[in-house]
Protein 1
Amino acid sequence: MATETAGQPQTTGPAATAPARTPDVRPMRADARRNYERLLTEARTAFTEHGTDTSLEDIARRAGVGIGTLYRHFPNRTALMGAVFQGEVDALLTHARELADAPQPCSALVEWLRAIITHATTYRGLSRALMTASADDSSGMARCSVPMREAGGALLTRAQQAGAVRPDVSISDLMQLTNGIALAAEESPDDPQLADRLLTLTLRGLKGDKH
């Protein structure tokens, strides 16, 4: 119900309740931020040198913090992995946007898939983790896999519309395929050309009738 006070409408009753406030997001304290950054740095080094199954206790020790501090920032291994790989994922997403208007849609898609394989083989165990995360959007790695599927889906759709890729190919299958190729390459370190050969062979099954 509204009444007039000094020429201005005044509302009473339920509608007069104060507007809902957005909860304040407290910034991370300086010491917590330093711990967070040290953990990411040490995790990135450890994952590169020893693989993604390296000891979390060792990562915490190298960062100069306790394991409890690590778990406060990253509740599980996949959450830590997702944070570590976010920079590489951002670069791949940027690359996908750069390829969005490429004159050859199929070549653009293949270039991006090749970049994913290169990224996945940088850290031993990453390709297996990405394969697992692709089936679980609640995983700590979903922050990587979900936007990657969306970016790749746009490139795939454009290639399909051009008739360069079969219409029954899905981005989920392609992402699993690239991770599988990366895993095969990871298991064959003495054959650096294996990933590219497998991807080239795969293209024969991707091409549409017009190409």
Protein 2
Amino acid sequence: MLRLVKTSMDQEQQVHAFLKEWRERDERIVPNAVDGEASDFETYVKAIRAREVRAENVGWVPSTTYWLTDGEELLGAANIRHELNEQLLSFGGHIGYGIKPSARGRGLATKQLALALEKAKSLGIERALITCDRTNVASKQVILRNGGVPDTPFIETDGTVVERFWIELKG
């Protein structure tokens, strides 16, 4: 059964395998909240968990990171930002998510985003912003399948077009 779980000390081997797979494929790890040096695993876990509360003068909003699991295997990760700042309103939104390369193409991202939206709702988020690069057709489909309503795209300084979608969580 698929579920989202927070980062914990008993996931060390699974996290190392997850990160290794992305790095061997030379892909940017998504969400970037899980991309870090994990050789000192206790520090890695503490850093991820510390982001759940507001920190003064750090430059980020509080966020909670979850791993998508099916049993023991980590299939993906989702990072839920509890609020938006100006940057996240343009790019990033409330939820960043990714499925590891070997687990793609099985509909897991759609299920992962649905589970992350439930978590966002439990945090009091009534309307979630989800973004993706225009060229990421798979991610756009995941967002649309979860009720995403297109909003005005954002164009980065390098010309990259970021698609923006809102999903209502009330009710």
Protein 3
Amino acid sequence: MSELLLTDVTIRSVSVSEMNNNVYLVTERTSGKQLIIDAADDLPAIQGLVAIAASDGPPPQVIGIATTHQHWDHVRALSAAVETYKVPTYAGVDDVAGINREAEVSITHGLNHGDRVTVGEVVLEAIHLRGHTPGSIAYALRDSSGEQVIFSGDSLFPGGVGNTEKDQERFESLINDVSERIFEKFSDETRVLPGHGESTTVGTERPHLNEWRQRGW
């Protein structure tokens, strides 16, 4: 488990399954309200994250589950989490049907680019990044300290954008969206928390954008 303490929120994560998926839990520190991002697998591990948040002070309360995209490895515990917590669910509108089919759930809120998900007084903005899947959504959190965090799903990793299966049109769509909607909008200090593996920052990856374009993945 890893933990990032900001002024407004604590962000905890755990890696689950043979795919090493990152599950994130955003907890508003003053209220205990929580948002799960990507209920990928292993409900007991997710429940463990929720329980650990009791050490923040207020009793933890899951108030929503957000999904970054429709791929099966990111939704294997979604049905169980919805049954456990009975809360609203969020995903990109163009991936809703795929998630409903893959996870056997009914997403309650389809998100478009610029839509918002609130966790108490904390706001996460939906960033639509087209290419890895049609409805892939990154979630951007701006803490009152000035720190910014992007939960990028499988659209942006240390070293490149997400897999577009050698489809040039999909790659161009994704690299353009990542360039315009992340690198042109967020500061170098912005943390990027991906769907698998280690975190990075916008500033660490920014110098490599042209390299990624040239190699085509």
Protein 4
Amino acid sequence: MKTFEWAVIGTDIGPLLLAATDEGLVSVAFHAGPAVRDRMPAQLADRLGAEPVEDSAGRLAEPIRQLQAYFAGTLRTFDLPLDWSLSAGFNRQVLRELLAGVGYGAVVGYGELAARVGQPGAAQAVGAAMGSNPLPVVVPCHRVVETDGGLGGFGGGLETKRQLLALEGVLPQPLF
């Protein structure tokens, strides 16, 4: 029987639930309080066709180490195997371009990202792709902003997006 490992880690933006298969990191979920911990492993089991195993020492050891280094400000580029099985088609194409082409401390507009994947009129579809991102933080959808300078949306909440952009030096750190 196929399995995936999952664990919850504490971060500066709250608890994250991480999951990994033999292929690599497959999911990062925000706000991993008790309700998410109770619901998410079963949802992932259904989508992945695999049994959940709670374990942070195996497949998740390196993703946890790199996320901790990122939040400590000592890691700017993740170097992890990723399992893209929860994303497909246009969404996967956009997320891969985001990962490859928008580095730490940079931002990109929805329309510009659409143009980069050969779909210049697809800014709204890029927004939908960001909303479906199964690997936020690692695949940095927080770096996609509105052309007019607005933050745009974010599955983890706008305050979380602000915190991630402040960590990367794009926005000022809050005074309080």
